[in-house]
Amino acid sequence: MVHPRVEQLRFTRSELVRALAGVSEEDARRRILPMNAISWIVGHLASQEHHYWVVRGQGKNLLPELDGLVGYGAPASTPPLDEMWAVWHTVTEASDPYLDTLTTASLQELMAPYSESIGNQLQRTTYHYWYHIGESQAIRQMLGHTDLPQFVGDIRGGGPYRPE
């Protein structure tokens, strides 16, 4: 059975998809300063998961150009949304086999080369998603989008509380 913290990350991923449903390519590439473009957000979250779960966790570098395009500290960009969704799907699918192996014990281990536990990195990733989901909703409001999600979705079905 998958660890409850991994379930929470997967639920949060589904909330990103729900939050960005119906965003056009044109709107996704608009940058309202000082915020990021929505397309950048999708790629940026993929970049973090790629870095943690694919590169560090599995020793694979599927997308070496990703950090330079949308990684932490990279210059602002407005990449095509369809390309960023494709990257995001590639990365999350590549991350899942590693995430499926995590246990309460392994979440306490440090992930080299950093002195931070795998569990902390898992929580950091989940919270990072929520940060950018909020940012994306602010951007959508500023773009005049209506009928946006107003609260966390079906947590009972997708990410219920479950003890370890």
Description:
This protein is an all-alpha fold. It has one domain: dinb family like domain (Four Helix Bundle (Hemerythrin (Met), subunit A), Up-down Bundle). The chain has 8 helices and no strands. It has helices spanning 4-19, 25-28, 38-58, 66-70, 81-100, 104-107, 118-142, 155-158. α1 (4-19) packs parallel to α7 (118-142), α3 (38-58) runs parallel beside α5 and α3 packs antiparallel against α7 (118-142).
Give the arrangement of secondary structure elements.
Blueprint: H1 4-19, H2 25-28, H3 38-58, H4 66-70, H5 81-100, H6 104-107, H7 118-142, H8 155-158
CATH third-tier fold name: Four Helix Bundle (Hemerythrin (Met), subunit A)
End-to-end Cα distance, whole Å, is: 10 Å
For the largest beta-sheet, the strand count, sense and barrel status come to:
none
Number of helices: 8
CATH class: Mainly Alpha
Please provide the count of β strands: 0
Order of helices and strands: HHHHHHHH
